[in-house]
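ugh ok fine here u go
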Amino acid sequence: MLLNKNDFKQALRNAAEREVFVHTILSSGGEFYFSDYEDWFSIKSMCEDSNLSIAKFELQFRSHVEPCDVDNAEAVYFVRSVMGQVGQKSKEYFTVGVLKDDIVYKKMWLKPELIVEKEYKDTIEGCFEKAMIYNDKGKNR
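structure:
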């Protein structure tokens, strides 16, 4: 469920122990918070339907806030990720990427700590198209 700022404050107080929230501000000024990954697709629909883009993107665990630089991005990419090793506990991540000049710059944020464990460059073809929200400049692809 997409939350406004007031509802978010209440949700944060009642959050599950490892719950991470996403804070987005759209180019229209609309501001939304969510913790259910599926809400990213509601944001995407809003952007596509109203010709909007992501102006601000942050991850938050409790009072720890990590801004993600989306300035001058042609698109913003957001997916859930899991990485495992034999004999080790799997780690959960949010992978956040920005498209600039045909390169997607990705960061894998460990959940819930919000520590960047891996940064790398990828191609658009190496991304799930469904998870990409384009701005005006990026829509011409």
